[in-house]
Design a protein that fits this description.
There is one protein chain. The model has no long low-confidence stretch (mean pLDDT 96). This protein has three domains: 121 residues, Orthogonal Bundle (Butyryl-Coa Dehydrogenase, subunit A, domain 1), CATH 1.10.540.10; 98 residues, Butyryl-CoA Dehydrogenase, subunit A, domain 2 (Beta Barrel); 146 residues, Butyryl-CoA Dehydrogenase, subunit A, domain 3 (Up-down Bundle), CATH 1.20.140.10. The strands form three sheets. It has a four-stranded antiparallel beta sheet, covered by helices on one side. The protein has 388 residues and is α+β, with helices and mostly antiparallel strands. It is globular, with a radius of gyration of 21 Å. It is 50% helix and 14% strand. α5 packs antiparallel against α7 and α7 runs antiparallel to α10. It catalyses: glutaryl-CoA + oxidized [electron-transfer flavoprotein] + 2 H(+) = (2E)-butenoyl-CoA + reduced [electron-transfer flavoprotein] + CO2. Pathway: Amino-acid metabolism; tryptophan metabolism; Amino-acid metabolism; lysine degradation. This is glutaryl-CoA dehydrogenase (ETF). Keywords: FAD, Flavoprotein, Oxidoreductase, Transit peptide. Belongs to the acyl-CoA dehydrogenase family.
């Protein structure tokens, strides 16, 4: 019996170039050999192994869409494919790469001084140094402009006070890109680990993104030299542009998580027998698989289209919002439906479905909740702002 390649029924990968397809194969081999055998254990233990970081650097995945300073200078489609293949293994793996490249390296690359770029970017590209992005606060999640963290000038230095929370890579980071209020507006500061007054506390007891380090950053009279500030951006445009970069990766990453759940469900349905036959032969199971196939292939096509727009220099934040809103929502629906096909086995760590479903609950709300992306699109459609 022949079967269609239903996880790519529209042959979206045929739209990629040879380099992007080779990259996908390379990352699949990497995660198959070095991640998948251990990911369940890492997830259950709540750890992200630091030794993976230089391996990611060797593959050229850290800051891969940036030019110079040891970065790969890859196109947007290649970066998207990388995010897809990493999140097919686990959202925590894609989150690390996304935060390192799009949220920590990108603002230094885009808004930093020549000295800041040279100090941090080569080591971050190699995986010798880790960065994090400090924006979210306990009372300023979807409304980051209401942040309380502030920096004031004191002589030629800056003094930083405040706290950030739910910060991916925070406990691992050698440098934190921290956004704070100043008299001039919101500005970005580079805060190295070990700076007096700067502490991190890892957040435990998570039921999602367990193979990822999530932390609180605390700043108490942290004195920084004047060259710690990113010189080329003032205002919320800085952190929001970083989020747009990272959200693009999420659009692709969600496709990877959904693909794994779908392929797991198809394989299970073909081999699990009930009432004397594989459950793949039952109409309701087939309907579930068909609906999952539809949404997976549409999400893949959407991700590819946004990649083409980004490579053409035409991608807008609203288009990225559309992609994140749709693809994460549908990936989570696919994961949940796959769980029902696996029945009780669906909650076992023997299969990846429940892990992906739990992770996607976080992906659904971080870097812009579904509600926020809905209202951003509503503003684009109507011209009327539903929130300030």
């Amino acid at each position: 019996m022949s079967t269609l390649p239903t996880s790519d029924l529209l042959e979206v990968d045929q739209l990629l170039g040879d380099a992007e397809r080779l990259l996908a194969e390379t990352i699949r081999r990497f995660v198959t050999d070095q991640v998948l055998p251990e990911i369940s254990s890492w997830y259950e233990a709540g750890v992200f192994p630091r030794e993976l970081v230089p391996r990611l650097g060797e593959l050229g995945l850290l800051g891969m869409h940036l030019d110079g300073y040891g970065c790969a200078g890859a196109n947007a489609l290649a970066y998207g494919v990388a995010c897809r293949e990493l999140e097919a293994a686990d959202s925590g793996l894609r989150s690390f790469v996304s935060v390192q490249g799009s949220l920590a390296m990108f603002p230094i690359w885009r808004y930093g001084s020549a000295g800041q770029k040279q100090r941090w970017l080569p080591g971050m590209a190699k995986g010798e140094l880790v960065g994090c992005f400090g924006l979210t606060e306990s009372d300023a999640g979807s409304d980051p402009a209401s942040m309380r963290t502030a920096a004031r000038r004191q002589g030629s230095d800056w003094v930083l006070n405040g706290a950030k929370t739910w910060i991916t890579n925070g406990g691992l980071a050698d440098v934190a890109v921290v956004w704070a209020r100043t008299e001039e507006g919101v500005r970005g500061f580079l805060v190295p680990r070990g700076t007096p007054g700067f502490r991190t506390y890892d957040i435990h007891r998570k039921h999602s993104m367990r193979a990822s380090v999530t932390s609180e950053l605390v700043f108490e009279d942290v004195r920084l030299p004047r060259d710690a500030v990113l010189p080329d951006v003032i205002g919320m445009r800085g952190p929001l542009s970083c989020l747009t970069e990272a959200r693009y990766g999420i659009v692709w990453g969600a496709v990877g998580a959904a693909r794994t759940c779908f392929e797991t469900a198809v394989s299970y349905a073909r081999t699990r027998t009930q009432f004397g036959r594989p459950i793949a032969g039952f109409q309701l199971t087939q309907r579930k698989l068909v609906e999952m196939c539809l949404e997976l292939n549409k999400a893949a096509l959407l991700a590819h289209r946004l990649g083409c727009l980004k490579d053409a220099g035409r991608l807008t934040p609203e288009q990225v919002s559309l992609g994140k809103l749709n693809n994460v929502r549908e990936a989570l629906a696919i994961a949940r439906e796959a769980r029902t096909i696996l029945g009780a086995n669906g909650i076992s760590s023997e299969y990846p479905v429940m892990r992906h479903a739990s992770n996607l609950e976080s992906v659904l709300t971080y870097e812009g909740t579904s509600e926020v992306h809905t209202l951003l699109l509503g503003h684009a459609i109507t011209g009327e702002k539903a929130f300030s």
